[in-house]
Design brief:
The protein is mainly alpha-helical and about 260 residues long. It is built from nine helices and seven strands.
C-alpha cells in the first residue's frame, strides 16, 4: 500500500484551511515521488546517452529543459495535474526519448518508460501547483547565486553534466556511467532544496505586501507548501535514497 493511501493524504476533498496538516503530508508524499521520478529518469537518460557515443548526440550535445510535452492526466474542480519532473528534456532540439531507436524489446521499453516518466503527474490542489510554478520559473542558469536558481534550469544543467560524460563505450549499449549519474543527482538535490527555499521567501514577501486578506492567506499557504518541499528534499545520501526508492531501475542497467 502506498503511503498516501495508508495515511489518507490524497488530495481529493481537501479543504486547504481546515486540512493544513493533511496538505503538508500530501506535499511530503509528492516530494518523495518527485525525487524518485527524477532519479529514475536520470538513469533512463544515462542509458539513452550510452547509445550515442558520437559527437553529435554524445558528450558535445546541447541539453535543455523546456515546458512539459506530455501529460498522463488532467485535473478538475480546483485541482491540477502537476508533473513530477519540472519539464521535458531536449537534446540537440529532440525529445530525449526520440533518441532511442525501438529496434528490439529492450529499446522499445526504454523509449516508452522514459516518455511515460516525463508524463507522470499527481493531482494536487491548485495552490500547490501555483507554489511549484514559483520554484520552476525560468530564472538564471544553475551555478548563479542560490536565490536565482530555478528548477527547469537546474534540471537541464544536471542532465547536461551527466550527458557530457565520456565514460560510455560504443560496444556496450545500456552500460552507464553510474558515478556520473549519482553526481548529477547530488547536484540536483542540493540545488533543489535551495530553489524551494528561495521560492518560499519570494512567496512570503508577496503575501506580506498584498493589499487584501485573501491574497495574503493564499501566498502564505503557497509559501508553506514550498517550505515543506524544501525540508522534504534534504537527501543526505543520494545512493541510499536511489537504492531505496528506485532499486529495480538502479540495478537494471550495466555499470562501467
Amino acid at each position: 500500500m502506498s503511503r498516501d493511501k495508508a495515511y489518507g493524504t490524497t488530495s481529493f476533498d481537501l479543504n486547504l484551511v481546515r486540512d493544513t496538516a493533511r496538505l503538508m503530508a500530501l506535499v511530503e508524499d509528492v516530494a518523495i515521488a518527485r525525487g524518485a521520478a527524477v532519479s529514475a529518469l536520470m538513469f533512463h537518460m544515462a542509458a539513452i546517452r550510452s547509445l550515442h557515443t558520437n559527437r553529435l548526440d554524445g558528450e558535445k550535445a546541447t541539453v535543455a529543459c523546456v515546458a512539459a510535452r506530455v501529460q498522463d492526466r488532467r485535473g478538475t474542480d480546483g485541482y491540477q495535474a502537476a508533473h513530477l519532473v519540472p519539464g521535458a528534456i531536449k537534446v540537440n532540439g529532440k525529445d530525449v526519448w526520440d533518441l532511442v531507436t525501438p529496434s528490439n524489446g529492450a529499446m522499445l521499453r526504454l523509449q516508452l518508460q522514459t516518455k511515460e516518466a516525463f508524463a507522470e503527474t499527481r493531482v494536487l490542489p491548485a495552490a500547490a501547483n501555483r507554489a511549484d510554478t514559483q520554484a520552476e520559473g525560468s530564472g538564471s542558469p544553475a551555478g548563479s547565486p542560490s536565490d536565482a536558481i530555478k528548477l527547469k534550469n537546474l534540471f537541464g544543467a544536471q542532465v547536461q553534466s551527466m550527458w557530457m560524460s565520456q565514460r560510455y563505450v560504443a560496444t556496450r549499449p545500456l552500460a552507464i556511467d553510474r558515478d556520473g549519474v549519482l553526481n548529477a543527482l547530488g547536484g540536483w538535490f542540493a540545488g533543489l532544496n535551495r530553489a524551494y527555499e528561495s521560492a518560499a521567501v519570494t512567496k512570503r514577501h508577496a503575501g506580506a505586501v498584498a493589499v487584501d486578506t485573501e491574497t495574503r492567506e493564499r501566498r502564505a499557504m503557497e509559501a508553506t507548501v514550498l517550505e515543506t518541499y524544501a525540508r522534504s528534499f534534504k537527501i543526505a545520501n543520494v545512493a541510499r535514497f536511489v537504492d531505496k526508492e528506485i532499486g529495480p531501475i538502479y540495478h537494471r542497467y550495466d555499470w562501467l
